[in-house]
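Narrative of activities, Objective 1.

The group set out to show that a structural description can be obtained from nothing but a protein's sequence at a throughput compatible with the screening campaign. Below is one input-output pair from the validation batch, recorded exactly as produced.
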Amino acid sequence: MFSDTYYTLKHAGEGLYKDKGSKFIAYAYPVKKEEEIKEKLDDLRKKHYDARHHCYAWALGPTRDAYRINDDGEPSGTAGKPIYGQILSNDITNILIVVVRYFGGTKLGVRGLINAYKAAAADAIENNTKIEMLIREVYQLQFEYPLMNEVMKVLKDFDLNQLSHDFALSCKLTFEVRRNKADEIINIFQSIYGVKITYLNTL
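Output recorded for this entry:
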């Protein structure tokens, strides 16, 4: 049985690291979409308009199938990569970590930069709470009115969360199911003649 859970952070949080006058302020945000990430980055660039660098890493999806790292002008591999390394080592996803750097006048060197970005990101994660989330799959059902009671009975018996419905000329309904239960539920609905089930997305 494969795992159908993942870890993320409970709320937005901050971290801080200082070295030779440079200040590294880290922000960690739980996120679900790239639009949210863009908004958070825009907000931080406005808030810290006078900072030298806004370096970040993010990961989306239960298996981190979408991710990005950005050094924002720091030497290649010294900022985004160590930030993303903290996302991996803490086994979290649906997360954005931004580290804002105020330059203190003394260069830290490659090793010093890697350590600073890593430490700031780690601090933001440590100051937060890691939570376990269920991977849920969303399906759409299409059927005619005479099958309504049979369909609703399955939803009730398996305690499936209904997300939306459209009972116009024929019936359409969307629901979510825990990934480990998805195959069983699909088989049940497929066994009801006249019910069409379609996978929509994963939450």
